[in-house]
Amino acid sequence: MLYFLHDSEIPPTNNAAERALQSVVMARKVSQCGKNLLGAITYTRIKSVVETARLRGEDPVAVLMALRC
Length: 69
Hints:
mainly alpha
């Protein structure tokens, strides 16, 4: 639980994770995509891929296009 005291690479707070989720919560409130299960699942999957691509320094659109069936 106190790993951040031994490793300076580990942040002492959870702010980055909470900030990453903030846009998801705001989008859900504005678009109401959570009104049905399929819309909520689709949105969270796309958002996950986009944010992972950004964290890796990749183009989110290119990553999504590569996943097309």
